[in-house]
Amino acid sequence: LDEAIVAFNRIFGKVNGIGILNENVLVQEFLRGKEYVVDKVSKDGVHKLVAIWEYDKRKANGANFVYFGMRLKPSDSELAKAMVPYADKILDALGIMNGPSHMEVMVNTVIKNGVVTYVPCLVEVGARCHGGEGTWLPVAMECVGYTQVLVTLDVYLGGGLFESIAKDNFPLRKAGREVDMVSRNGGIVRSLPGDAEIRKLPSFRSLNWEVKPGDYCHKTIDCFTRPGCVQLVADTEEDAERDLEAIHTLEHVGLIDYAVICPKPPTIGAVVVVDPFSTGVNMAATVLKYGYKLIMLFSELDSPVSKLVAKGNNMNPTLMIQHDNRNPNQEEAIQATLSELEKSGDPILAIIPGAETGVELAERLAARFGTRSNGEDFIHTRRNKFYMQEALGAVGVPAAFQAFCKNEIDALIFVEDLKKKLQGAPFRCVVKPNRSTGTDSVILCQSEEEVIQAFHAVHGQINGLSQINDGALCQEYLDGAEFVVDGVSRDGVFKIVAVWECDKRSVNDANFVFFGMKLRDSADADVRVLIEYSKKVVAALGIFQGPSHLEIKLTSNIVNGEV
Fold this sequence. Notes:
alpha+beta; eight-stranded antiparallel beta sheet
């Protein structure tokens, strides 16, 4: 009932897709089955079948009935034999005796005692030709040999076509598809890379874009928000279906290149920087420099690391928001933060992490708000170094031998397992916090006793991000030089912007003290190895959008690191 009331209020009093005010709301039972179109043309009460289409509607983008396309269906099937006479009764009952009709019918398949029965029920009928901007016409023409438009004109102009065609059958020479493209995001179109790929499909006949570069493309939720459609004709049903699914596969990455992904058409948009600390301060300042509005969002109430914001900056954000990380119901807290963003009144163009502490929250907010994001499937690997390495190993990308230890027994088991792996080689490992940054409490150990001491030096302590370490991460020690690979991804295309070689030394009773970094040439042979490895890492961790900062050890026989 609650959903029905919400749906009523969403429809009543609103202007609908054809520009008419909804003065009432139609409530109907939900009809089970598949939905079909029966296109007919009538003359003096004689109803002739000109096409049957099967609708392909799926759940997408939060909507239940999104058009993915239509398939031409044969008229000699048992299904058709159930629908066609039913359609004639509907037309007679509604007094449609002359001209075209476009009927949508739901058919429920009932199987009883091994007998299949098709039970049709009307959805609606229009006393007009099939709509959809008529983009389906060339498919019908090639597959059937005539169209509803031609037969309709013949009825009124007397050309003889109506008399020449069968009443309840039409020829189906080839397999035809009308494919409705589905935009998975809302945003400003930069280019249409899918155009070239679609035109290469064997069954391709024509393509109609309803957006162009520079336009705002809505996220597809109905027939009015599709970005375009494609017409396919093949010799077999299998070939036509393969190409239909190939087009829909492109929609996730490769159909439309968005300059900006945002849920509403932007005017002067705003960029949200989550935890504008460290380099995030520069990012926030650059947002303002580019002329956008800035929203500074803090992932913690009264964040203890807010002092890291550069002193003396003259940034004037449009809005500052504090996420309530203390709320035990974080789903509720996230919804509250999303509501604050909505109330800002400005189109949100991007939600970007400014620092390590903001990575997870930025991912969740971007995915749910509808800006460019990596989704939420890999969030557990974003800051958890243990899960990060496990995700690499799961897909065959070189990863460190490791264990996440919650107590001394776990640490001792790790030591024994690592000794077996080393097969007599000198024992060395590192113990460190699982969710900190930099070289915070990274301890080199060369014995079982040192591992236990290091475990207690990490577990239960407050790390450099002012968070309590719950456990300690133990990993094998990797020989070799350490590098940083900085990259940026957009729609799955990963580009390298810098490679740094780290200078870390043992000093002041610490093993990994930063002495500096030097930029490396991307053409160097060892750097090329790092870059190829980095590509595998970001793919394995589902980083398809935004910046990435990879710390990698280059050893004699393996590359390994964290992001």
